From TrEMBL:
Highest rank taxon of the organism: Eukaryota
Gene3D superfamilies the UniProt entry points to: Phosphatidylinositol 3-kinase Catalytic Subunit, Chain A, domain 1, Type I PLP-dependent aspartate aminotransferase-like (Major domain)
InterPro entries: Aminotrans_V_dom, MULE_transposase_dom, PB1_dom, PyrdxlP-dep_Trfase, PyrdxlP-dep_Trfase_major, Transposase_MuDR, Znf_PMZ, Znf_SWIM
This protein's UniProt keywords: Metal-binding, Pyridoxal phosphate, Zinc, Zinc-finger
Domain SWIM-type: 1110-1150
Native organism: Hibiscus sabdariffa
Pro residues: compositionally biased ranges: 1196-1206
The protein's name in its UniProt record: SWIM-type domain-containing protein
CDD domains: PB1_UP2
Residue numbers spanned by region Disordered: 1181-1218
Amino acid sequence: MASSLHDAPSAAVNGTFAADAKSQVHKKPRLYADPSPPLFTPSDILSEFSHHDPAIARINNGSFGSCPSSVISAQNDFRLQWLRQPDDFYFNQLQPKILQSRTIIKDLINADHVDEVSIVDNATTAAAIVLQQIAWGFAEGKFNHGDAAVMLHYAYGAVKKSVEAYVTRAGGYVIEVPLPFPVNSADEIVHEFRQALQRGKQNGRRVRLAVIDHVTSMPTVVIPVKELVTICREEGVDQVFVDAAHGIGCVDIDMKQIGADFYTSNLHKWYFCPPSVAFLYCKRSVNNSDLHHPVVSHEYGNGLAIESAWIGTRDYSAQLVVPKVLEFINRFEGGINGIKKRNHERVVEMGQMLVEAWGTHLGCPPEMCSSMVMVGLPACLGISSDRDALNLRTCLREKFGVEVPIYYRSPKDGEEGGVTGLGMQSINLLTMHSLVLLFPIHKLNLTLICRRERERRKRRVVHLFRFTPQKNPNPHKSRFQVPTLCLVNRENSVSCQFMAAKRVIAVCQSGGEFETGKDGTLLYNGGDAHAIDVDDETKFEDFKTEVAEMFNLSMNTMSIKYFLPGNKKTLITVSNEKDLKRMIKFHGNSASVDVFIIMEEENVAHDVSNMPASRSSRTTLSEAVAPVDPPLAAPLDIVDANNHHIDASIDMPTEISSILSLSKSTQQWQNTITGVGQRFTGVQEFRETLRKYAIAHQFAFRYKKNDSHRVTVKCKVEGCPWRIHASRLSTTQLICIKKMNPTHTCEGTALATGHQATRSWVASIIKERLKAFPHYKPKDIVTDIRQEFGIQLNYYQAWRGKEIAREQLQGSYKYAYSQLPLFCDRIMETNPGSLATFSTKEDSTFHRLFIAFHASLCGFVQGCRPLLFLDSIPLNSKYQGTLLAATAADGDDGVFPVAFSVVDAETDENWYWFLLQLKSALSTSCPITFVADIQKGLRESISEIFKGSYHGYCLRYLTEQLIRDLKGQFSHEMKRLMIDDLHNAALAPRPELFQTYLESIKKISLEAYNWVIQSEPQNWANAYFQGARYNHITSNFGELFYSWVSDAHELPITQMVDVVRQKIMELIYTRRATSDQWLTRLTPCMEDRLANEGMKVRTLQVLLTTGSVFEVRGESTEIVDMDRWDCSCKGWQLSALPCCHAIAVITCIGRSPYDYCSRYFTTESYRLTYAESIQPIPDVEKPLQKDSSSALVTVTPPPTRRPPGRPTTKKVGSQESVEHRITLRMTLAG
C-alpha cells in the first residue's frame, strides 16, 4: 500500500473544492469578517515566540524567518492528519488546500490568475525551474550559442551556481552587472544595468534572460525592479526573472506593476511561514509549456502549478498553513503593510545610530533599505578577510549571545582606510506599540553604545563592547531581559558596568507641522524623527544638546514639547531638569514618549554686509542642513489682463530662511547681475537671470513694471532701497539695465523673504535630467533642489515643474490633440495610400483616431493570409483611452501590424467605427476570417461591414467566460480538465472527435456541456468552422502593440502614434533584411512543419489508383483527394500545408510537396509582405504648420484625464460624434 502511494498521480483526486478562489479569499486577503480581529497584545506576542532561545539576541530574521507558535501548531495538525489517514488526506484534502494557499498568494501579489502561481520549496527551486527552461532553449536550438543571460553581481550565491549549471554549460554567455558599493541612488543601478544589456547585445547576440534581484542580501539594497524590467522590454530581452527571496512581507509586490515574466519569493523569511514554502509567479503570456519542476513525477506535462503540487511522497504541511499565517498577520495593526512600515522605520533608525557612533556609513540610502540595513564596522576591529568576519560572527554568537551576519568586502583599487567589515541587521520588529517585544529591547543598549562611542572618539580611546544576557530570576516574567553593557578602556583597564535601569525612548521629531483634528486633537505630520533613551539620570542640558546636535539646530532657538498621556490637545514645554523628570515620570508605564522640537525666532542682530545683496554672513553649508519642512512655497506664474508675465512670490517662513545656506550651484549665480549697462537678449532672459541672482543672494523681489519692453523690480521688504530697472534699447530687442541700487538694508529683520523659485525655474533646472531619466520622481526633485540650491519645494511644486519640463521636452498634450488634423495630413502626404482619419464629439473633444499605413495595407493584401486578429490594449496615458489593433500573420507566423486606432473608450460604437475605417482602407474583396472576442459588439459589426467574412471566436476569451459562468462549482483540477477538453474540442478536425471531447466534458458537468453547446461551436470549433484560421484559435497577436505602446504611453498622442510608426518601420526593415538571406522555398517556420510531417511518411502505405483520389493506410485509413487538396484527416485543409498522408501520395506520384503548399507560406510571399516601406514623418515633434484645410478643425483633449491616485470608474458620454474625414489618400496598387 505504501509503495502504491509513492509518486501517486493527483489526477485521481475525487474530492472537490467547495468554492472557487474568489469566494474563498478577498482581493486584499483578510480572513476575518467585521468586526476586525483582536490585535495582539505584548503578552500574546511573547507567547507566540516563546519557543525562541531567550539567551540569543537574534538579529538575523532574513535568513530563516520567525515562525509563530500558532502556525507551527497548525502545521503539526496537518502532519497528524496526513499520518492518521494519508489516503483520505491525499485524495480529498491536499490539492484543495494547496489551491487555497495559492489563491491567497495570488491576491497578495496582485496576479491575474491563480494558475500563474506555483508553490515550491524555496526561491532556489524556482530559479532552477526558470533556468532549466533556458538550458532547454539552448539544447533544442531555439537560442544561438553565445546568447546572453544578465544577472546582478550581488545575486544570491545559489542562484549564481544555478546559472552556471544551467546556462553556462548549455552554451550561454553570462554577464554580471557590477553594482557600486556603497549604493548612492537607484540611478547608479539603472546606469550599470543598461550598460550590461548593451554588452549582452554585442556581436549580434541576444539577451535571452535577465535575472534581477528585488532585495539583495549583500549589500542589503532594494533594487528598482520596475525600472529595470521596463528597460529589458525596451532592449528586447526575451524573459525577465525577478529573484525576490526577501520580497513578500518585506517590500510591496504587485505583479501587474512590476511586469516581469517570472517572480519568486520565499514565504518563510518575512511572511512568518515555516520552511519550506515559496511561490513562483509565471506570467500567462509566457509560453509555460516548457516550464517543469526539476523533480519529475506523475503530473509532468499538466502545468507547472499542478506538477509542483505533487512531487512525490513528502511533507506538504508548510504549503498548507498560508491561511493560518494570514490570520496571524491580520492581528497586527495595518496587517502586513503595517509590519513592513514599522520594520523599515526601526531598522533604519538603528542603522543610523550605529553609523553615527562608529563613524562609518550605511550600505545604501535609507529609502533603498527594506527591513534590513547594512552597517559599516569600525576599522579598529581589524577585519581583513572572510575568515575574520566569520570569526567575529562566531564570537558574538558563542560568547555574547548575539546572532548577526557579518560580511567582508575587500578595499577597491586606490581605496585607503575604507570600511572593510560589514555588519547587517535584519530584524522583524512586528509591532511598535510596546518596545518590550522581541528585539527592540536591544535598541536601548545600542543607544548606550552610540553615546559611549562618541565619547570614545573624543578621547581617542579604543573601547570594546559586548552584550551579556542576564539570567531570568523569575521564569513567569518576560524572557527578553535587558543585557548589561561592558565598556573596557584599554589604556587603564578600568571596566564600567551599566546595569539595567528603567528608561523611556524619547522619539524626537522636528521639521513637521501640527494640524488640528475635528475633535481638537493635534496631529503632527512630516519632518524627521530620531530616538534617544532617557532616564532619571539624564541631565536636561545633555538631553537638549544631543537633540540640537541630532537635528543640527541652534539651542537658542529650540523649544522642546510633549503631550501628557491621553491628552493630545495641549503641548507641555520642557525647559529645565524638573520638567524633564516629570516627562519621564508621566510616561513611566510607556515604552516611548513623542517629543516635538519647535523652532522659534532668534532675536539676534545681524551685521549688514557691504557686498551687494549678499547673504553670505548666514549659516554656512557645513553648519546647517536645509530642513525638510515647512515647505518653501515657490512663486506662481501669473499672466495679467495685458498678457504680461508676473511672478507672484509667497513668503518663506523665517525659520527656514534663517538656516538655508548657499550651495556651490547657487554661488555661481551671485554675479549674474553686474550692474548698469548689462545687456540681455530679451525680457525673458533678464527675468531668468534676475531670478537666479535673487536665489543666490537669498532675497525676494516684487515687479513694479513688467511687460515686453521694460521691467522694474524692487526688494520685497518695505524700506529696503534695493532696486533695478531695465528697458529695451531703441530699435533693438536687447534689454539693458538702466538703473540699479545694489544695497540691501533688510538683513536680519527681513529674513522672512522668499526665494524666486517659480515652477518654470524648477522646470529649467530639471529638464536635462528628466530627459536622461524619464521616471524622475517629484520627491527626488524636491531632494535634489534642496541639496543643490538650498531651496525647499513642496511636492506639488516639484510635480508642476516636472509637468512643465516634460511639456518642454515632449510638447504639450493639449497642443498634440489640436495638431491631429495636420498630423493626419502629414501621414498621408509622406505615405501615399495610407489612411489617417479621426473624429471628435460635438464639443470638439477627441473621440477616436484611425491609422493604417500603405506599407501595412499593401503587405497584408499582397503577402498575408486573409486572416485578421482583433484585440484591444488599455492606455496608461494622461488621458487614458484604449488602442484597438488589427494584426495579421505573415508567412513565417510572425505578427504583422495592419491598422490601429486610439479611442476614448472600448465600446461597441468605437469597434464599429474602427472596422468601418478598416474596410475602407483595404482594397481586397477576398473574404477575411477574423479571430476576435465574442463580446464588444464585434459579432454584429463584422457580419455587417465585412459581408461574407467569418468570425472565429477567440478561445482564450471563450475559456475565461466559461470559468466565470461556472461560478466556482468545481475544483481547480476539474476546471483544468474541462478546459483541456474544450481546447481539444476546438482543435478537433472532425465532428466525431469533437463530440468525443464534449462527452468528456459532459461526464464532469452537464451544465458545462450545455454551456459549450450553446456557445455556437460553428464559430470556434475546427470541425464546423467555415473560415480559414490556419489553426490560430486565439487573438493575442495584439501583444506586440502592447509592448510598443507601453514604451510610449506617457507621450502626447501624436508622438505616441509616431513611436508606433517607427516600430512598424523598423519591423518591416529588419524582417525584409532577414528574409533576403533565406535560400529555402518556404519560410523557415513552414519548412520545419513540412519536414516534421514528412518524417511520418515512412510508416504509411499508399494504394495507387488511376484517378486523383488515393487511400493511405497507417494507424488509420485516410482518403486523399489531390485535385481538391483534401485529406480526410483534415490536417491539410486546416494548416494549408500537406499532411503526412498527402505527402505520401505526392511522393508516389513523383511530385514535390512544395507544389501543394499555400502560396502564403513561400519566401516570395513573405518578401512581398515586407516589400513596401513606411516613410518618416519629418519634424513630428515640432509644431506643424497650418497649411491645410484640416487646420480649421478644432480638437481638444478628451474629458477623461487621469486623476492623481487610484483610478476611478468613469462614465462615457453618449454624445453624437462628428467625423472629420481626411480624404487625401490613394488606392492600393493591385
